[in-house]
Design a protein that fits this description.
The radius of gyration is 21 Å and the shape is elongated. It has helices at residues 2-14, 27-37, 41-52, 62-69, 75-85, 89-98, 108-111, 115-125, 129-140, 145-161, 165-178, 190-207, 226-231, 264-273; strands at residues 209-217, 220-224, 239-246, 251-257. The longest helix has 18 residues, at 190-207. A hairpin with a 4-residue loop joins strand 3 (239-246) and strand 4. The chain is of the alpha+beta class and 274 residues long. It has a four-stranded antiparallel sheet. This is Processed acidic surface protein.
Length: 274
């Protein structure tokens, strides 16, 4: 599923196409949470720092911290993730040793403390060729580690809320591929353009994001609508800046697309991979 999620996000960002001070969680809530997960405050602080380069003061509440870490890892939760990835515990352990996540003879539950840390590691060690290509594409688009982390966390929440997400994405990918065979916008009918707008809007709704679009040329930036972008015959050498936000207006990432990166081939290829 993650492979398709990443492919679809590329679709939203590339197809041509939306801060404040933090305070640590309240001490009473934090103490209750620490008892729940069987850790001291010092141990949790060290874990956040060592694993994510974060601190307790970076989270406004225990609820936000839970959303970031997931549940404390248990045998039952480990078994659930291994089933999702189609691995036995030995196969997963061998992959972790091979990729430097743990030493030979260590137990997975002794190395990974929370579910999302395990999930991210399993995702990394079971990458396929297409996944590497997608990851490389994000790097080429200037997505840094913090933006990537925000993106993955957002997609994880969307996936958890929508059990039909995979089927929804596949259906949208098929719709996108069906209208992607064109050399110039002049070849598209009004119905084709309307369908592309509908698909792109549905993609944003499905992934619960808002996007803002800007044309950038000679150091100047001008905001434009999605309708203008889809129907534009020529961007006149301008680059396209796409900013992506969640539905609460929190910034996730931005990418800058140069003129030679935008075209129907990209739309067709992305749609076929979803």
């Amino acid at each position: 599923m993650k492979k398709r999620l990443m492919s679809l996000l590329v679709c939203i960002l590339v197809l041509v196409p939306a801060a404040g001070a933090f305070a640590a969680p309240k001490q009473a809530e934090l103490q209750e949470y620490l008892e729940e997960i069987g850790m001291t405050e010092k141990e949790l602080e060290a874990y956040l720092q060592d694993t994510y380069d974060e601190s307790l003061k970076d989270f406004e509440s225990v609820e936000e911290l839970k959303d970031f870490l997931g549940e404390r890892l248990t045998n039952q939760l480990l078994a659930s993730y291994l089933k999702e990835y189609g691995l036995s515990e030995k196969e997963a352990a061998d992959l972790f040793v091979e990729n430097g996540y743990m030493e030979s003879g260590q137990n997975i539950l002794d190395v990974f403390m929370f579910e999302y840390e395990l999930d991210d590691a399993l995702f990394t060690v079971t990458y396929e060729e297409d996944d590497f290509q997608i990851g490389n594409l994000f790097q080429e688009l200037g997505v840094d580690d913090q933006e990537w982390e925000r993106l993955v966390n957002h997609l994880r929440k969307v996936r958890d809320k929508n059990p039909n997400l995979e089927n929804d994405l596949m259906a949208l990918g098929e719709r996108l591929e069906a209208v992607a065979d064109f050399e110039s916008v002049s070849e598209l009918s009004a119905q084709d353009i309307a369908e592309m707008l509908s698909i792109l809007n549905d993609l944003q709704k499905t992934l619960e994001v808002k996007t803002k679009y800007y044309l950038v040329k000679d150091g100047k930036k001008k905001e434009v609508s999605l309708t203008t972008l889809v129907s534009a015959e020529d961007l006149k050498g301008a680059s396209l800046l796409v900013e992506v936000y969640d539905l609460q207006g929190n910034f996730i990432l931005d990418v800058l697309l140069t003129p030679d990166m935008i075209g129907s081939d990209l739309i067709h290829d992305t749609g076929s991979k979803v």
